[in-house]
Amino acid sequence: MPLNSNLLYGEMAASWLAHLAIPVFISIIFPYFFYGLTGAVKMLAFIGLCCVLSFVFQSGFLSVIQASSCNGIHNVSHILKGSIVATVITGLTLLIPAFIQPMRLMVSQLFQNHLTLLTPDMATFQQTLAEAAVKLEQGATAGQQKGGGITQAEYDAQTFQEFTIGASYWGAFAGAYGFGIGSLYAGSCK
Fold it and tell me: Whole-angstrom Cα distance, residue 83 to residue 89?
């Protein structure tokens, strides 16, 4: 029985939505399970969790494809191969917002401002500006950077938040593309 293209496109859209939601869901539960991780280790643990959930979702979606194409599930190894391929594509794509700042900021700046890191010289300058502003009874408007930058801890938290936004965007497209490639394996009835 041939592959139903309407089912394929519908499940591809469902995979897109699922992979859009996976990073959001993990960003909500992540702080409770991985408290204390920082920097690249934190992002890699996040990507690992995304890959586990991606594998689960892709396996389910690809099982439906094989059941539809082959009048039932006849070869679980083909579903697993397709799921592994789709998960690898997703995992590799999630490395983009984790380690390539312009690609991360391209998406995250649509939802939040990016503040620069506060250097020691900028900290002194910012303190001087703040004192001058108090003397002049002027303040900066909310949401704008106030002259200098943010601390390293604030910058790390901001970077991780930007990463989660970027991971949703990049993961959604990787999930749909990975599903399409994985369906080539799962749709085989042999």
Answer: 10
| Model confidence pTM above 0.70 | yes
**Helix ranges, 100-151 (H):** 101-108, 120-136
Residue-by-residue pLDDT tens, the chain, 190 positions: 667 778 889 999 999 999 999 999 998 887 777 777 777 888 898 999 999 999 999 999 999 999 988 888 888 999 999 999 999 999 999 999 888 888 888 878 777 777 777 777 777 777 787 777 777 754 445 445 455 567 777 878 888 888 888 899 999 999 999 999 999 888 887 7
Question: Please, what's the b/e burial string for 66-100 (b: 16 or more CB within 10 A of its CB; e: otherwise)?
Answer: bebbbeebeeeebbbbbbbbbbbbbbebbebbbee
Phi, psi of 83 (to 5 degrees): -65, -40
User: What are the extents of the domains in the chain?
Assistant: 5-113+161-186, 116-149
Q: Pick from 78, 25, 13, 17: which is nearest to 52 by CA?
A: 25
Rg (CA), the chain: 22
